[in-house]
Amino acid sequence: MAQRTTGHRAAPEHTHPDDVPVLAALTALADPVRLTLVRELAASGEWTRSCGSFDVPVGKAALSHHFAVLRGAGLVEQRDEGARRVNRLRRAEFDARFPGLLALVLRDDPTA
Question: What global pTM score does this model have?
Answer without folding.
Answer: 0.86
